[in-house]
Write a structure and sequence with these properties.
heterodimer; A: about 10% helix; B: alpha+beta; 5-stranded antiparallel beta sheet; elongated
Chain lengths: ~170, ~140
């Protein structure tokens, strides 16, 4: 339950940054993500169309990388929570009977990364706090900031994300 | 037509989508997202109290992004996209992505939008976006 989380327990963790080597983003990744959205924009599918717009390869849809829930492989199946998520997905220990909700994102896109890039993610634990909701009781909010770098050490985008932990109703 | 000189505050863009269950499965696969609320209807209903499996939070952002990038000219770029999830959407129902121009900054060549997605039940995501129509 969210009410089992004590934000003060994580004060020393605020500001810490974890680095993930996401690795190579391929043309297949780009095309499959665009297909999953049913987005036929040619800059995601057709290399020549992307090059005609002065990109060096297919454009990685800007919100593709921030939409990835598990940056690595995730834990073994036996260790997943009942809801399917890795209990260590976020920088706090998730109570077993809590529920998780995506709260939203703010993307700041500095340049479009392209297929063939190797991506490194720097994720910082920014804040944790609790609020009362009329319909859902106490909710715990996690604020995370991720910066995405390509192999040239170029920051291509940053993402401020809110994750909400609640109690089962 | 989508030149910064030919748009006005209040202009609105719309994209209708109807995400299917296979589409949500593909989206979860690409995001390496094992959350049951997106593919296990019994879990979604019985354990978490949702009406069905849910459209992923990030899918709303992806739909708004699709709307804006399809509108932008070839040399345009999405610079900022922010949204909060304020409601739920389920598969096989209409989901509309919307964007309305709220400001045009001719000096810096930027256009600001209010953006949102909505289903028949109301708004699902609310936010703002900034585009640069010509780099």
């Amino acid at each position: 339950m969210s009410s089992k989380i004590t934000p003060e327990d994580y004060e020393e963790d605020l500001g810490t940054t974890d680095v993930y080597e996401y690795g190579l983003v391929t043309r297949r990744d780009v095309r499959r993500y665009a297909r999953a959205v049913e987005d036929d924009n040619p800059i995601f599918h057709d290399v020549e169309a992307a090059r005609s717009q002065e990109y060096d390869d297919l454009v990685i849809p800007p919100n593709f990388l921030p939409a990835i829930i598990e940056r690595s492989t995730g834990c073994p199946d036996d260790n997943l929570r009942e809801d399917g998520l890795d209990p260590h997905l976020y920088p706090i220990e998730l109570p077993s009977d809590s529920i998780l909700m995506g709260g939203g994102q703010k993307l700041t896109i500095e340049t479009y990364a392209t297929a063939g890039s190797r991506v490194t993610i720097h994720e910082t634990f920014v804040d944790i706090y609790q609020r009362e909701s009329a319909s859902m009781g106490q909710l715990t909010f996690l604020e995370l900031q991720s910066e995405y770098f390509t192999d040239a050490e170029t920051r291509v985008l940053s993402c401020d994300e809110t994750v909400i932990v609640g109690d089962r109703q | 037509m989508n030149d910064i000189d030919s748009v006005s505050v209040g202009d609105r863009l719309t994209l209708e989508k109807e995400p299917s269950r296979p589409q949500l499965f593909r989206f979860s696969a690409m995001a390496w997202n094992p959350h049951r609320i997106h593919y296990d209807p019994e879990y979604a209903k019985d354990v978490e109290g949702h009406p069905d499996v849910l459209v992923q939070a990030h899918f709303h952002g992806a739909s708004i992004q699709q709307l804006l990038l399809n509108w932008l000219p070839a040399d345009g770029r999405l610079a900022e996209l922010e949204w909060s999830n304020v409601g739920r959407a389920v598969p096989d129902e209409k989901l509309t992505a919307n964007a309305e121009i709220t400001a045009i900054d001719e000096e810096h060549g930027r256009i600001e939008f209010e953006v949102w997605t909505e289903s028949d039940e109301g708004r699902c995501a609310d936010g703002t976006a900034v585009v640069v129509p010509h780099e």
